[in-house]
User: What shape does this take?
Amino acid sequence: MKSTKTILPLMHMIVDALCICCLCMLSERYGGSGNILGLYFAYNVMAFLTQPLTGWLADNCRAEKFALLHCVLLTAVVIILAWSGFCNPPMDSQGTMMYAVIALLGLGNSTFHVWAGRLTSLLTCNDIRWLGVFVSTGAVGLSLGSVLASWALAWILTISICWLTLIYLRSEDMNKPLFATGEPLHHAMRRTLNGDIYTRIDISVAFSCIMVMALMAIVMVRSHAGSTLNGQLPHSSMMILAAGMVTMAGKIAGGWIAQRIGLATTFLTAAIVTALCAALASEGAFVILLGLFAVNCTMPLTLYMINVVMRDREGLAFGLLAASLMPTYIAMMISQTILE
Assistant: This one.
């Protein structure tokens, strides 16, 4: 399990950094707010709304296929971008190739997240602490990729993600008997918050559906709260990096705190602190960053709970929560369009 706890979070950071780095370079090539809004909207549709489908596929396919697929897709993006840079004129003005690149980039992101998220859930027995560690690193990747976006960074990240994927495929975690035979990890052991092992929890279909919808609603509200707080920070490279680090710290801390004091207490405390920080956001950046830390403490909680409810469908569960981020993004995009 050592590889799962270390390599997958590092890969998460690199994939998100690569994706935002490519988006930034595309934004420079296609000036104008209309093109940029369309670019980011298309990317988010492919990266997030496809995750329920890729998650379902991950639950029913060999893990190695997804590992190699995200490498091929992301590498293809950088190669196409590099090739287009030597064209004269560059990519056509209508952006046809741009949207092809966006489709590859979004699918590469989607396949990675459901593959790695599912493996983390299964191989750590749904341990809430390591769920928090895995989801946390993406925030730092987004910060670094947006601040340091360049061709050099894109190539370094592409080589790194392919190299780490191959290392992980040869690791002990990916060579367990169930992976070797290609069988899904149905009825794999899970771990409760206090560390006890359980193999089965009987939950009715109706209750499962209600719980899944409730958790998706929580993710929507949390996404809106986080975006609102983030939008009130000063726009500088240092603040972008600080927000990424604080977000990562919150997601890691949330899992470890919940393991100590329980889900309900952690969630209620985080909600109260977030509300207070949102109300006092005018007091300065420190209060806003504290709010970001608190709201992100709930991230591993919702992932843990949906894995419990959707037993043996961890890929689909991860994808449904990811897709729940889209309503907030659409609302932000509409708001930005109106303001402009």
User: Anything to note?
Assistant: Residues 178-189 have pLDDT under 50 and may be disordered. The longest helix spans residues 2-29. Strands lie at 190-191, 197-198. The radius of gyration is 20 Å.
